[in-house]
């Protein structure tokens, strides 16, 4: 299509305006809108005459509202649009709005629109657009929303100040009074999108930014679901997407060339200032806004890349203005005349939703820019405090959601504020167990579930609050609150919860606890990995701390202290925080003692160096410390004890009553404690008060006696006026009459006494804890929390669902003063910890509640999801406590899981118990390196699993193998012991099965051994069913634990072997059903780990050696034989390894044989040992080195045995060794020859058979001949040669000769001694 064919001419403005103007002409009423029609035709003619767009023309024209047109032409061209909007005729207004949408979305309208002169055409157009909502047409409403959003989105138009607020207000009005639900949802979506546009620009300090599109579905998360008319959400989402997409790609180069940068950068500047003044007029006294123009100028240029960038600091000024107005709107409350103003309530909720959108998308500028952070403190935090008084569910949900973002993104800059909001918003609801609001508590539990998934938040909360003396124990209260919820309402208490709601709360709280301990474990693993890789990857370690779990989007993932560290964060080590935590715990302990027994408490605190020993220091402590009971303080100050009196005097002297009215002074004095009930105590305190008041105000009374009597009289008046038990109240005349003549015989002025009377009657004298004004006194009870008593009274007071009550203005100012007062303290510094050791202190706080919550839930609930969360929590708790080397806590968690396997009473097992078995196996595999003593519980469970599996398969018990068989009868009996598979053919009345079915305690050595009584068929059926459940755990899982022992570190493998030996002893020593499962696993473990380094293997064998000796000496012969045979198997495997010279490992390995041989009273065991040694030596003779010593010691003991067959068997082996393997004896060790000679000498004294003695003598002769021939010396010499001794001038040869002579003599001494003894014993035979 050629240019001439475009309606409106070839220019860009003409192509946008032409069709719309033509439509206006067609739709207008000729008589009513004649002026409009003529104007449209004139403009069409003008547009036809305009040339096509040219960059040179655009550059030459500046300050024009329309692209490529002069200002006068722009006013002329846009005039019909303005007239059409003012006509209030829908058929005319609609095409005008369509035209404006095209102009804004195409970037044809440019410039700054704010508090500009009323003759500026664009400003008038925006005002007219906002007015058309009063027409009452649905289509016009939507078109108007489209235009307003496109205007704000356009990167070529900077809408500022009053104009921006006016646009937002218009959308508000459509939302509150829209013609249908769809339009109201659209208005809400447009508002949210405007917030995203404005504050995305604020972040970048630029007009040309990429803005994400709002999700309409998320906007309806808390409210307005009733507005959805079928496909309304889909329609509104497309509506917003359409408008946002229309502005994509704008501005292009030709538009940027004509951008009025000087106007945008250095414009009038009055828009924001004037609007600030307007905004401040409404709430100046309420908000205390101290921002000035000079203060605003401090942000000029922040974040801008250059002086020519569009918008500059004006963009951020508009952000401040809009944010403040939203906060103010959210703080409007209903008046007393209209307490149930639903429109105001909807507006409040919408403003909170928009604030939530802003906070959800807040970026680094909110954390790095001090002014933005102060804006959050001054306005948003104030809004949250005020709205805490409401009981509207949607407001509470929005508050929690906004608070979530404050916690996630801004916690480093809002430490004090979070310390107040957390108890007010979250803990107040969490700790209400009996009568909570179901929706409120579910909101809080969901809130805690989300933050518990962010490990850094959990750690930061503990570090900055639980370790801060001046802050509440938020982490501890969260855990304890979740425990109370998990346990449910106490028995006998009245509750408003249904059983379903109670169960829901229990499961959700357990889920939160599991998430908390899981996050702690993840944080610990991350920090330990970072620490391990720090030296090799120092550049990456700083970024690794930033990669913790996210809650909302990518931006939320960056921890705020990383971006805000330059302001008030500091890195802290665990040792420093440990000291702070210990100080806080000890101080709280002292306070607790004081509240019960004040003198004991002061003494404790003095001894702990928490309070000085002087009365002045104690008085300061009583005056300023939070958590002290005011009644107890009063009792302590009134005591007659000398030290207490001195403390009371110091306490009173710390007050300054100068120029203070008498009634005000008493009120100020008594707000820190409650006067005791005893008259004498009151007398002492008021006597000192009167003295102090007169000292501060010398001219007030004639003497201190006057002040004393008047003070007493005021106290009596206060009681009389405000005690409901007193029926006849004191009148003013009575009060004046009672105080006649107290001023040294004179009367005080009646006017003074009357004023004092009025003050007391109208305003009761009471402690700060009883008043609506918060002071420094705090207590652990809910209504004294953090000095926010008035707020909490509003929160917990009885209110209707929709009634909105405003918080007291004085109270709000007091809270703001608290924030300012605390901001300069060291406690306000935000601490960041990267040392995983901090988890030790966190676990000390949480392990008890978590253990109780998981145990109770696992015991009482059969819900698979809840029990799996409990088991996951147990696993994470074991992981953390094991790595942190917290033995008591680790063993408690492992023991609990082991007990919940119910392997000790298998007939009662359920699916959750099988899951507990799986958890035990998982713990063994994942945390084996840190389990230490807890291995015993795990291995006991594995032993019981194997036992149950064998019973289920119908295998005979181990006792049948341990019983020695005697012929065919025993063989038949052995077969009869075995029974069919229980799973397939039912059960037989087998004693072992019956014992297992009966069950027993967890700690019993053998299941069911102490249980008596009959077993019912139902128990048998349950048992068989549970055996089928155990099929889920196969042999692979069991064996995997033992095979994985090869991967355990050196400390862990020793602990593992110790535990396995303990379990094996328990199995083998069972009087009714000895088992060998663990014994066989010991052999496997030893085999798996035999290739470890010598030092580790020696430690392992020290444990195993003691075990084999202990069990080898067992009274149960079958068990002892089995153990010795197991030791033989190990020894055979060990002797396969070659040993170097001069080592002693073989000797250590074979030592159990020697000890059992020496100590065992069983002939069968001794004979078995001799056979085992004989087999090992004869089959592995070439590998025996240091082991010869143990071999000869065994045979030496055997030579003196009382049983002939043992002696003969041992000598038979000795004979073979000496005859055939003599060279091996002295191959590495010279002392083995001596041991051999001593062994043969013992055989020469045999009393059973003279042939043995004679043969032993013959072997001694054989040894003597070998020695005489120099065979041994040759072996020794070969060893010396192997040592490669250097020969220098024959010195080495002399050394060798001398050594040979000494060795020769040392070999002959035992040999000759043995021959002499043998000749003495057997002269005839010799």
UniProtKB/TrEMBL annotation:
<dbReference type="Pfam" id="PF16213">
    <property type="entry name" value="DCB"/>
</dbReference>
<protein>
    <submittedName>
        <fullName>GUANYL-NUCLEOTIDE EXCHANGE FACTOR</fullName>
    </submittedName>
</protein>
<feature type="domain" description="SEC7">
    <location>
        <begin position="576"/>
        <end position="763"/>
    </location>
</feature>
<feature type="region of interest" description="Disordered">
    <location>
        <begin position="535"/>
        <end position="564"/>
    </location>
</feature>
<comment type="subunit">
    <text>Homodimer.</text>
</comment>
<dbReference type="Pfam" id="PF01369">
    <property type="entry name" value="Sec7"/>
</dbReference>
<dbReference type="InterPro" id="IPR035999">
    <property type="entry name" value="Sec7_dom_sf"/>
</dbReference>
<dbReference type="InterPro" id="IPR015403">
    <property type="entry name" value="Mon2/Sec7/BIG1-like_HDS"/>
</dbReference>
<dbReference type="Pfam" id="PF09324">
    <property type="entry name" value="Sec7-like_HDS"/>
</dbReference>
<feature type="region of interest" description="Disordered">
    <location>
        <begin position="252"/>
        <end position="310"/>
    </location>
</feature>
<dbReference type="GO" id="GO:0016020">
    <property type="term" value="C:membrane"/>
</dbReference>
<keyword id="KW-0344">Guanine-nucleotide releasing factor</keyword>
<dbReference type="InterPro" id="IPR016024">
    <property type="entry name" value="ARM-type_fold"/>
</dbReference>
<keyword id="KW-0653">Protein transport</keyword>
<feature type="compositionally biased region" description="Low complexity">
    <location>
        <begin position="535"/>
        <end position="552"/>
    </location>
</feature>
<dbReference type="GO" id="GO:0005802">
    <property type="term" value="C:trans-Golgi network"/>
</dbReference>
<dbReference type="GO" id="GO:0005085">
    <property type="term" value="F:guanyl-nucleotide exchange factor activity"/>
</dbReference>
<dbReference type="GO" id="GO:0015031">
    <property type="term" value="P:protein transport"/>
</dbReference>
<keyword id="KW-0472">Membrane</keyword>
<dbReference type="InterPro" id="IPR023394">
    <property type="entry name" value="Sec7_C_sf"/>
</dbReference>
<feature type="compositionally biased region" description="Basic and acidic residues">
    <location>
        <begin position="280"/>
        <end position="293"/>
    </location>
</feature>
<dbReference type="InterPro" id="IPR032629">
    <property type="entry name" value="DCB_dom"/>
</dbReference>
<keyword id="KW-0963">Cytoplasm</keyword>
<dbReference type="InterPro" id="IPR000904">
    <property type="entry name" value="Sec7_dom"/>
</dbReference>
<keyword id="KW-0813">Transport</keyword>
<dbReference type="GO" id="GO:0005829">
    <property type="term" value="C:cytosol"/>
</dbReference>
<dbReference type="Pfam" id="PF12783">
    <property type="entry name" value="Sec7-like_HUS"/>
</dbReference>
<dbReference type="InterPro" id="IPR032691">
    <property type="entry name" value="Mon2/Sec7/BIG1-like_HUS"/>
</dbReference>
<dbReference type="GO" id="GO:0032012">
    <property type="term" value="P:regulation of ARF protein signal transduction"/>
</dbReference>
């Amino acid at each position: 299509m050629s240019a001439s064919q475009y309606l409106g001419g070839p220019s860009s403005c003409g192509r946008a305006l032409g069709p719309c103007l033509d439509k206006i002409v067609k739709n207008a009423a000729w008589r009513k809108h004649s002026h409009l029609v003529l104007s449209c035709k004139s403009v069409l003619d003008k547009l036809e005459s305009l040339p096509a767009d040219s960059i040179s023309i655009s550059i030459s024209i500046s300050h024009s509202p329309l692209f490529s047109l002069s200002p006068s032409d722009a006013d002329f061209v846009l005039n019909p649009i303005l007239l059409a909007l003012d006509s209030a005729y829908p058929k005319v207004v609609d095409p005008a709005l369509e035209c404006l949408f095209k102009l804004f979305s195409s970037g044809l309208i440019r410039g700054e629109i704010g508090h500009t002169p009323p003759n500026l055409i664009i400003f008038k157009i925006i005002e007219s657009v906002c007015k058309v909502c009063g027409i009452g047409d649905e289509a016009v409403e939507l078109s108007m929303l489209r235009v307003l959003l496109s205007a704000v989105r356009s990167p070529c138009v900077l809408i500022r100040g009053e104009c921006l607020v006016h646009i937002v207000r218009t959308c508000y009005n459509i939302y509150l009074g829209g013609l249908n639900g769809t339009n109201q949802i659209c208005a809400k979506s447009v508002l949210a999108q405007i917030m995203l546009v404005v504050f995305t620009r604020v972040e970048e300090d630029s007009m040309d930014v990429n803005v994400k599109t709002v999700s309409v579905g998320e906007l309806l998360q808390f409210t307005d679901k009733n507005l959805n008319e079928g496909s309304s959400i889909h329609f509104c989402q497309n509506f917003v997407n359409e408008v946002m997409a229309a502005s994509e790609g704008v501005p292009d180069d030709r538009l940027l060339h004509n951008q009025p940068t000087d106007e945008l950068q250095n414009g009038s500047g009055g828009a924001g200032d004037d609007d600030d003044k307007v905004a401040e007029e409404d709430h100046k006294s309420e908000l205390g806004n101290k921002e000035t123009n000079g203060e605003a100028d401090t942000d000029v240029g922040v974040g801008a890349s250059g002086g020519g960038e569009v918008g500059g600091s004006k963009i951020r000024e508009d952000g401040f203005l809009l944010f403040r107005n939203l906060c103010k709107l959210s703080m409007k409350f209903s008046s007393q005349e209209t307490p149930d103003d639903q429109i105001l309530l909807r507006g409040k909720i919408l403003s909170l939703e928009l604030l939530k959108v802003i906070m959800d998308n807040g970026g680094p500028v909110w954390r790095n820019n001090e002014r933005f952070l102060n804006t959050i403190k001054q306005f948003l935090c104030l809004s949250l405090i005020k709205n805490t008084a409401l009981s509207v569910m949607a407001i509470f949900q929005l508050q929690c959601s906004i608070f979530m973002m404050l916690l996630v993104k801004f916690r480093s800059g809002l430490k004090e504020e979070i310390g107040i909001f957390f108890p007010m918003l979250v803990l107040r609801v969490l700790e209400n167990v009996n009568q909570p609001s179901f929706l409120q508590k579910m909101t809080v539990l969901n809130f805690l579930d989300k933050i518990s998934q962010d490990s850094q938040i959990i750690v930061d909360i503990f570090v900055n609050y639980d370790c801060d003396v001046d802050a509440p124990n938020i982490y501890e209260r969260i855990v304890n609150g979740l425990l109370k919820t998990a346990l449910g309402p106490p028995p006998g208490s009245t509750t408003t919860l249904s059983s379903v709601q109670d169960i829901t709360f229990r499961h959700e709280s357990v889920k939160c606890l599991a998430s908390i301990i899981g996050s702690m474990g993840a944080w610990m693993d991350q920090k330990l990995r970072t620490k391990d890789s720090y030296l090799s990857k120092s550049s990456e370690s700083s970024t690794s701390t930033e990669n913790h779990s996210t809650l909302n989007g990518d931006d939320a993932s960056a921890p705020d202290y990383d971006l805000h560290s330059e302001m008030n964060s500091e890195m802290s080590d665990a040792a420093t925080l440990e000291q702070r935590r210990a100080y806080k715990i000890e101080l709280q302990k002292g306070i607790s003692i004081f509240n019960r027994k004040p003198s004991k408490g002061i003494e404790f605190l003095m001894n702990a160096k928490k309070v000085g020993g002087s009365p002045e220091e104690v008085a300061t402590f009583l005056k300023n410390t939070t958590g002290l009971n005011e009644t107890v303080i009063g009792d302590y100050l009134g005591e007659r004890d000398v030290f207490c009196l001195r403390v009371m005097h110091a306490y009173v002297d710390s007050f300054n009553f100068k120029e203070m009215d008498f009634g005000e002074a008493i009120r100020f004095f008594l707000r820190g404690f409650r006067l005791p009930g005893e008259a004498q105590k009151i007398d002492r305190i008021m006597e000192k008060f009167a003295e102090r008041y007169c000292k501060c105000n010398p001219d007030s009374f004639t003497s201190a006696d006057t002040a004393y009597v008047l003070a007493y009289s005021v106290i009596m008046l206060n009681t009389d006026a405000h005690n409901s038990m007193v029926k006849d109240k004191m009148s003013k005349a009575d009060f004046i009459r009672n105080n006649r003549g107290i001023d040294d015989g004179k009367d005080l002025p009646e006017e003074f006494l009357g004023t004092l009377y009025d003050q007391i009657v109208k305003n009761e004298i009471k402690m700060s804890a009883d008043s609506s004004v918060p002071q420094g006194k705090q207590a652990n009870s809910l209504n004294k929390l953090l000095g926010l008593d008035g707020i909490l009274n509003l929160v917990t007071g009885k209110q209707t669902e929709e009634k909105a009550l405003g918080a007291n203005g004085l109270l709000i100012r007091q809270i703001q003063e608290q924030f300012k007062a605390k901001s300069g303290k060291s406690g306000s510094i935000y601490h960041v910890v990267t040392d995983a050791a901090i988890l030790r202190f966190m676990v000390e706080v949480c392990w008890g509640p978590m253990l109780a919550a998981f145990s109770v839930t696992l015991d009482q609930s059969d819900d698979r999801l809840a029990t799996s969360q409990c088991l996951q929590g147990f696993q994470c708790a074991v992981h953390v406590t094991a790595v942190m080397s917290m033995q008591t806590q680790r063993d408690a968690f492992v023991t609990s899981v082991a007990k919940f396997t119910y392997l000790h009473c298998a007939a009662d097992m359920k699916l959750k118990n099988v899951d507990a078995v799986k958890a035990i196996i998982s713990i063994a595999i994942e945390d084996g390196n840190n389990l230490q003593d807890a291995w015993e519980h795990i291995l006991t469970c594995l032993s019981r699993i194997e036992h149950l599996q064998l019973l289920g398969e119908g295998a005979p018990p181990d006792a049948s193998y341990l019983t020695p068989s005697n012929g065919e009868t025993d063989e038949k009996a052995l077969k009869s012991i075995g029974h069919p598979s229980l799973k397939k053919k039912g059960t037989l009345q087998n004693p072992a099965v019956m014992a297992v079915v009966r069950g027993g305690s967890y700690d019993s050595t053998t299941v069911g051994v102490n249980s008596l009584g009959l077993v019912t068929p139902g128990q048998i059926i349950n048992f068989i069913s549970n055996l089928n459940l155990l099929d889920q755990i196969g042999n692979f899982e069991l064996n995997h634990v033992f095979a994985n022992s090869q991967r355990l570190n050196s400390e862990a493998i020793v602990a593992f072997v110790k535990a396995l030996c303990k379990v094996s002893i328990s199995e083998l020593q069972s009087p009714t059903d000895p088992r060998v499962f663990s014994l066989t696993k010991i052999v496997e473990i030893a085999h798996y780990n035999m290739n470890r380094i010598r030092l580790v293997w020696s430690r392992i064998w020290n444990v195993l050696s003691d075990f084999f000796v202990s069990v080898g000496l067992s009274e149960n012969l079958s068990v002892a034989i089995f153990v010795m045979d197991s030791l033989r198997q190990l020894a055979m495997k060990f002797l396969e390894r070659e040993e170097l010279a001069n080592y002693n490992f073989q000797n250590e390995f074979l030592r159990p044989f020697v000890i059992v041989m020496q100590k065992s009273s069983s002939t069968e065991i001794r004979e078995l040992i001799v056979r085992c040694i004989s087999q090992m030596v004869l089959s592995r003779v070439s590998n025996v080195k240091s082991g010869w010593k143990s071999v000869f010691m065994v045979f030496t003991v055997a030579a003196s045995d009382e049983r002939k067959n043992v002696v003969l068997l041992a000598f038979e082996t000795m004979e073979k060794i000496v005859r055939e393997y003599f060279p091996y004896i002295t191959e590495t060790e010279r002392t083995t020859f001596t041991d051999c000679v001593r062994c043969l000498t013992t055989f020469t004294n045999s009393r059973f058979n003279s042939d043995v003695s004679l043969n032993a003598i013959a072997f001694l002769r054989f040894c003597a001949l070998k020695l005489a021939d120099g065979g041994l010396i040759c072996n020794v010499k070969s060893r010396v040669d192997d040592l490669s001794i250097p020969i220098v001038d024959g010195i080495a040869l002399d050394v060798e000769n001398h050594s040979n002579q000494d060795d020769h003599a040392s070999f002959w001494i035992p040999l000759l001694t043995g021959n002499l003894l043998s000749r003495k014993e057997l002269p005839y035979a010799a």
